[in-house]
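Residues pack. One example:


***
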Amino acid sequence: MSSSPSITARTGTLVQVLRRVFKLAAPYFSSEEKWRARAMLLTIVALNLFYVYVAVLGNEWYGRFYDALQNKNAAVFWHEVGVFGWIAFANIAVQVLKFYVTQLLQLRWRTWMTRSYLSRWMADRTFYHLELARYAGKDGQTPDNPDQRIQEDMQIFTSATMSLSMGLLNAVVTLMSFIGLLWGLSGNFSFTFNGTTHQIVGAMVWVALGYSVLGTVITHFIGRPLIGLNFRQQRFEADFRHHLVRVREYSEAIALDHGEKVERDQLDLRFSNVLRNYLLLIKQQKNLVTFTSFFGQAAVIFPFLVAGQQYFGGAFQLGHLMQIGSAFGKVQESLSWFVDNYDSVAVWRATTDRLTSFDDSMAAHAAQDDGLQRAPAAVLHSDDLGVALPDGTPLLAGAALAVKPGDSVLLQGPSGSGKSTLFRSFAGIWPFSNGRLQVPDNVAFMPQRPYVPDGKLRDALTYPNPATNFNDDQLRQALADALLPDLVNRLDESDAWSQKLSGGEQQRLAIARVLLKKPAWLFADEITSALDAQAEGVLYKRLAATVQAAGGAMVSIAHRAAVGDFHNQRWTMVPQAEGAAGGGPRYRLDTAAVQPAAA
């Protein structure tokens, strides 16, 4: 009775793994490509069955061929050489065709799965919200390195699922095809014990079964840690690669800060995790390879050791013995499929777990309700607006805000008070908001750090809209108005513009986008922090004129006092000591101090 819980736990774990695999695999075979996918899968199954049939023909050929050798029958020998040619040709043709169809199905499956997950990851700002959850300290609930899961894990999952499932099918069919053959070939095995003669019917079948079961149990005991080690190895490799990319992206800032040693230490730390876990993986694989190699080599001679006594006793000829050896090898190989594929199963299991957690995180996000009721309107208006940090700490509560066309509002407050977070709530990307909010259409949000994609300058300028939406004159005028005259004639140059342009140039490029697209409502977060006062004044006047001409309004975040000259209202984030101490909101938004723009 004491062993029942562990057996149940293992069965439950196996059932859970199969459910996860089904959850990941079923959507493709039920998608718009289902008929093609199913047809290709059935073709692969049929080819596997035919491959086993050819193997059965090969086993029968063994008997005839080696009997001809023992009997020195040249006519039969040369006839069987010709038969072998046809068997070999069929074997090669099946393997080539099976490889091609399998690879094609894997490619189509991976393509569909990658596009499906990319669509889900990019939909409804899921990619952003999952990162927020991670940085909020919820690492156990959110997937690490989703880029790796989409790029690498899906390739491993599709290829491993196909190879392992077809390998298992091949093993099962081979077992069914050869176990009867081996039963008939092995005959009865007699032995005497305590003066009594005993007979075992189909002895070689029982020997193969016992040999394989023993090998499977020992293999599982040795290789079980590989699942966790493979899971961690994939994570450590992704973390190391991610930090390498960050060093490349922030190369100038690191160089200016002389941060090479710190970054090298960070890279060494991440790479040491890779090496440490990989060494553990190697040691565990060494133990597994040692046993499986011994197990495989012993299986070659084992059937001859068991059946050799009968052969030398004249019970059957050499061809019969070779057939026993071949059939035993096929049965033992089929029963030992788990032994031979344990390392691959461990990698596949770890990959399945990683993809399942990624899938679950995206599904949980899709079902999440942030509590903020948004509605379109001609003005910006909120009732009882609340904003919190990812860890649940409230920043604002019960905020009532209103901005009408023609207004220009400057939002100020201490650093870290949540000004940018409030903007994110306005934009609808902050999932930790509640209350009611009305937001106008034709709106543009400008973050502190603009995103500048690599590629042609015209594409970076019009992002995220297609460059074909604008003619060259419009693009050049926007660059000139944003004080970027040196870029006017470089529209078709391709470069890593986030590395090529200075911080001030990137801010002006973002302003050029706004001047080009002419939104009615503009929310600007420290968009001129890298500019000199003169350029800041010129560009703010042009932005204000743009939104006023479109009949909208502008809301800005800035620390410089001079920016207030371009706004006719001020909102201030005022700290609340009693709120922070008692679990209430840390700030209140003071909108009462309305001041006209400076002359």
